[in-house]
Amino acid sequence: MTDDDRTVPPADASTDAAAPGADPVPEEVSYEGQFYPARPARLRPRARLRDRLWQRKAKQPGSPTGDNPDYVSWLVDESMLADATTFARQFAGQGSMWQNPYAAPDPRAAIDKAAVWFTAYPISMITKAGGTFLGTLGDEDLWSAFESIGITAIHTGPVKRAGGITGWETTPSVDGHFDRISTQFDDMFGTEDEFRAMCEVAAAHNGLVIDDIVPGHTGKGADFRLAEMKVGDYPGIYHMVEIPKDDWGLLPVVPKGRDSVNLDEAAERRLTDAGYIVGEMQRVIFFEPGVKETNWSTTAAVLGPDGEEHRWVYLHYFKEGQPSLNWLDPTFAGMRLVIGDALHSLGDLGSGALRLDANGFLGVEKNATGGPAWSEGHPLSEAANQLIASMVRKVGGFTFQELNLTIDDIKNTAERGADLSYDFVNRPAYHHAMATGDTEFLRLTMRTAQAMGVDTVSLVHALQNHDEMTYELVHFATLHAAEPFTFRRKEILGADLAVLIRAELTERLAGESGPYNALFTTNGIASTTASIIAASLGFDDLSALTAENIEAIKRAHLLLAMYNAWQPGVFALSGWDLVGALPLERKQVAALIADGDTRWIHRGAYDLLGFQPDATESTSKMPKAPALYGSLAEQLADESSFASQLRAILAARARHGLATAQQLDIPAVSNKGMLVMVHRLAESDQVTVLNFANTTVSGSVRSDHLRPGSTVIDMITSAPVGEVDDLHSLYVVLQPHEGRSLLVVPPVD
To answer: Do you know which InterPro entries this protein is assigned to (predicted)?
Structure first.
């Protein structure tokens, strides 16, 4: 049998390269493949394109309780754990599972596949008339616009069913569809066939699709309801502990009409002292008095098929409707659920990569000294992330993580976990630079990450996403709280530095300076990129913006795009960035922000291609956000528009391979508004010079990595602009919020 014979599937086999019996699709040989030829080439996953998911059992008549076998059977059919078992069996014992290297993260291989990402948010996208979110994302005209700009991947965001199940009925999502309850797609977003078609259109335009899995939690769907009933392995999915009836007195009363209630600190201590739970965590994310005071909640009494009533205490790092998964239960049910979900996205649907959401909170351990439980930076999180990421690489995909933890944690997880990490360290720092016109804190964070061994190429550098402008500054506020840092010519402890930066961001971007922005608990500021810039520029009334004001916002917005794009790593931006969206008025989303989740003000609907110019809301009823730049169709016809200038920025980046370069230096600057980054390209060096100040600045750019006599060329115009002098420096003049990307070509010896 020849090699060709071995890779040709039978006529009735799947066409998925990552699925059983598939033919491999080799990519060009990498450095790794050249020097380790025994390793198989990477494969590109393709959708199996099966006819349909198996038929679901219809809702049955009868009581939705544990003593009704039909109800329990229906829940099992709806559960993600049952689906995961079915998906996993399709891959077991197949030779295709051994065709890809998987042990170590490979950020450059991931970036070679997709270097510029569009991050969508399903409920905020205005679709084609009568179309769905997924159908619109698969639109040929939209992908032609993306390809023209330089966008090579879309991250769909969460599109599968989310929220909960109560009785026979589903309940809405409590966290923007990040509380997944099913492997099926939510009807409001589209179908599996539309997802597969979108993947095919993306591939035709040299792009790929990035899907989501959530290794940290689910919603209160069928899996959680079966766990409450103590059915099979389902309790093993979650961090949940059954409380015997004799100790129900330790639990608070669950109000009528509720299925659970959050524990206050006193109840948390009682249960900890009784040996049921590990107790207090290192922090309470989304803390809200009277709503979420601890990370633990208790269920009401639930009747199980065994005829007994059960009450449980369960962990949720996030909201009460997001029970946390247990990665070290003897059944390994949580692990099985997550891996099956990943295989479905990659092997069956055709996505090429996955975002790991909430993956930094996969381990929890009691503190032997009586302090808060160990719940962040736990080795179990690192082990679980390695397992997930390795499985994804094993079937030909890659992963990225959104891990808002310390630089130490990002470094540790990057060694064996996800291929790429979201840049939560420098994101608040560049917002601080914009707000203050001073890059010192940004230079501090970048140098700290570099000194600790975090390679810039392994990071996803992003503009706006669905979350708030995060300013928790976890690195400084927690693990390095007592460590001294030098800032503004003085020594300051990490904890105090975090407090200072948060205060300055709050003062300049919210309150009287930016009344249209809003604080989001203790996490950050709900805002769009455009509204952060507007507050930084002193525009306190968005309804009174002039054409000159809008031009100033656009110029600063492009500067932030240059910062994120003109350095190694992935560059990501959103629909809100592309149209220049502004926040909604609070009254427009009053019901959504009633529980304190102010992020809804920056999630307004946007229309990328002018699909429905007269629409006032998305299909999901999100009000349309005011937009400064217009649709992509309009912008790409105007060379001075945001999208057209972004196209030139990304073209220069792609032309010179900046995305996979090596960052050498973040040198000192002669003006506090300047930021300089020096990078090593394949045959030359590159210098990014940015002015975060709203005034003209000038000064020398000096780095020992710059070779005297080198010719300096503007990468946008391709025109020579100077030469590196004998002091390893070059002189630049920058207008307000101007950026330059300079190619430094060494002299011929």
So the answer is: GH (IPR017853), Trehalose_synth (IPR012665)
Cα-to-chain-centroid distance, residue 619: 23
Report the alpha-carbon distance of residue 188 to residue 672 in Å, rounded.
Answer: 49
Report residue 324: phi and psi, to 5°.
Answer: -80, 145
Q: Is residue 655 classed exposed, middle or buried when 0-12, 13-18 and 19+ CB atoms within 10 A define those classes?
A: exposed
Look at phi and psi of residue 91 and say left if phi exceeds 0, alpha if psi is from -120 to 50, else beta: alpha
Q: Cα–chain-centroid distance for residue 749?
A: 46
Any alpha helices (H) in 258-402, and if so which ranges? 265-273, 333-343, 379-394
The pair of three-digit structure tokens given for residue 665, joined into one six-digit string: 């230096």
pLDDT of residue 50 exceeding 50, the answer is: no
Answer whether 542's CB lies under 8 Å from 531's CB: yes
Closest CA to 577 of 116, 103, 98, 106: 116
Q: Are 557 and 530 in contact (CB under 8 A)?
A: yes
Compute the average pLDDT of residues 245-254.
97
Model pTM above 0.85: yes
User: What is the C-alpha to C-alpha distance for residues 473 and 478, in angstroms, rounded to an integer?
Assistant: 9
Task: Report which of 365, 409, 364, 419 is spatially closest to residue 388, judged by C-alpha positions.
Answer: 419
Q: What 3 state SS string does 135-196 have?
A: HHHCCHHHHHHHHHHCCCEEECCCCEEECEEECCEEECCCCCCCCEEEEEECCCCCCHHHHH
Tell me, what DSSP letter sits at residue 487?
E
Q: Is residue 376 predicted with pLDDT exceeding 80? A: yes
Q: If we measure between CA atoms, which residue out of 745, 746, 742 comes closest to residue 677?
A: 742
Contact predicate 198/209, CB 8 Å:
yes
Q: Are 141 and 610 in contact, with CB atoms under 8 Å apart? A: no
H or E segment to which residue 117 belongs: strand 116-119
**Rounded (10°) angle between helices 427-436 and 440-451:** 160
CA distance 63 to 460: 49
Residues 554-588: pLDDT tens digits? Answer: 999 999 999 999 999 999 999 999 999 999 999 99
Reported as type and span, the H/E element at residue 77 is helix 69-78
Distance CA 472, CA 532 (A): 17
Residue 692 CB coordination number (10 Å): 29
Mean pLDDT value of segment 235-263: 97
Rg of the chain in Å (alpha carbons): 26
The residue to which tokens 């600790």 are assigned:
452
Indicate whether 521 pLDDT > 90: no
| Residue 423 DSSP symbol | -
